[in-house]
Every structure is written in structure tokens, then in C-alpha cells.
What we know:
By secondary structure, the chain is an alpha/beta fold. It has one domain (2-120). The protein has four helices and five strands, in the order E-E-H-E-H-E-H-E-H. The chain has helices at 23-41, 59-71, 86-98, 111-120, and strands spanning 2-4, 13-18, 44-51, 76-82, 102-106. Strand 3, helix 2 and strand 4 (76-82) form a beta-alpha-beta unit. Helix 1 (23-41) packs parallel to helix 2. The longest helix is centred in the first third of the chain and has 19 residues, at 23-41.
Amino acid sequence: MITIINDAPENVAAFKATGEITKEDFENLVIPHVKKKVEQFGELNYLLYLDTDLDQFTAGAWLQDVFLGLKNITKWNRAAIVTDKEGVQKFTDIFSVVMPGEFKSFPKDNLYNAFYWCENGNEVEN
């Protein structure tokens, strides 16, 4: 299931993924919320907090995620993937090279910094 993270900065479309993720999660929640943010701000700042294993994404959900990325490809500004899965972190950092906008991974214990980066484009200094 995907839920909206309501206490995210206003210019960030933020989601938390738990349990099984389906195509309907993207159709009914993610895409409309992303569309609203792009219309409001003219760009997409996106945060996904992965609190589930990637094998919990159904095939339809993966296709929907790809569709979301392609549809708004010119609107991507910043996207943070928050996870402790090392493989996902590496993929996110590599994906950043081929996509417009900035993509960055953050460990789960650094969620605040991920929100800050999505909102402002820089990280909180430690």
C-alpha cells in the first residue's frame, strides 16, 4: 500500500510504501497527487520512503511507476528514495545520471535530510 506523507514540505510529493504495492496505488493515489504538485509548482520534487521489499511491488505497479516517470520526465526536479536497501540506493544514484533532474538515495534514519533536500536542493549540515 502507498500512502501520502502529509507532513512533507508543500512542494514535495511524498509517499510511504508498505506491504504490497499495486497498480491501483499508483492510479488512485500517486499519479493524481503528483499531477496536482506539478500543476501547482511547475516541477516535481518527489520522495518515496520504502518500508517494504521490492518484491512487494506487483508487475502492474512497476509499469505504472515507469509510466509516471515517463509522463512527467521533463518536470522532474529532485527525487529522493529513502531506504536501507543498498541495491536500491545504488540504483537510485545511477538512475540520476540518465534522468533529467536529481535523484538521490537516503538511509531511513536520514528522512529529515531527504525532505530538506527535496524541498531546498541542499542537505542539512551535520
